[in-house]
Design brief:
This protein has 419 residues and is α/β, with parallel strands linked by helices. Helix content is 41%, strand content 16%. The relative contact order is 0.13.
Length: 419
Amino acid sequence: MTSRRIATLMVHTSPLDQAGVGDAGGMNIYVTEAAQNMASQGVAVDIFTRRTNHDVADVVEVSPGVRVIQLNVGAVDGVTKEQLPALIPALTERFSEELKKYRYDVIHSHYWISGKVAIPVAKELAIPLVHTMHTMARVKNLNLAEGEVPEPMIRVQGETQVVAAADALIANTDAEAASLVSLYEACPDNVSVVSPGVNLKAFTPGAGRAAARDRLAMDKNAYIITFVGRIQPHKGPEVLIRAVAEMVTHSKHLRPKLIVNIMGGASGANQSEVERLKELTAWLGIDDVVRFAPPCPRVELPDWYRAADLVCVPSYSESFGLVALEAQACGTPVVATAIGGLRTAVADGISGVLVDGHDPRAWSSVLARLLQEPQRRVLLSLGAVEHASHFGWDATSRGTLDIYDRVISARIDAAKNIG
């Protein structure tokens, strides 16, 4: 495997971007961590992305064996994800030019726009194409937040084309694999499940909750609930805010000690969402309880997880839910929606609690009960660390490399049969 070179493509967001802002999220972490683990096994990984930053070099070595290569296509500033489909032909041409500089064994595209860019290049250069969706339009449209705009038909059509063209599709969970087959008519033999991981060296219980709160200057006696992620309706921060309003109404004794951290930045077309949620928080009369914070550097994130009594992931759909896994690795129980990949990321009743639906009253009931049961939180904390321990990035990279080997071998066998 030492001679392998992989072309990873993610055009709508860069692995160099701060996760939790704009379109940068779990996929950025997934791609970078998996690439670094593959590189440690002797595989060279070049990550191609569209330039969105004037200050970044054309080629950036992230770590030994992993490079980020900028595709200079379109305006550097001001291009939204919704406008990217118009740039697909130009991105395809530029990507093809870059891939002719080296011999690549596999193209691995992430998200549907990258898949569309990769299809003609994979065909032109006779390179196997592996694709990971991360999220799917048909799944999201079945689980929209109130008032959320459905994903457009151009995305549905694009995803369908990528499913049909890819040599292999990687799903994060069995549920996602089933959706690829049932909603996109993927051939079951082309779909493999490889769970994302968590950096088990960085995300650990560390010195514990008290030490983390001391470092972050947080009250050691407070009840702390934390949300981490992009601030957009689909991630469900409003569900948590309304649940907290319910909780302080029915469990008044919790209010003086309650701190709710909403950590994240505006995402995509929802640039006013943070301000809207701040206004909602004030209108509900809980702005003394809810605190908004920008995304922090990744090295500081474990302390935010450790400092919390509970981490909430109230998403409307989630292909996996890396935040849930990171929090559990730090020893913090997670309360999450019982949907999609979160059913895998959280072991209900063992490492956290899964909540059906998005009714703030149901969420309020679960949160209040957990805050008032410290012994149960201790047990869930122990279960959280144990559950997360099964999801290291080394397993993710090994599973992905196995799929690369399979598509490369199939391509070689097909060429022999033709010959």
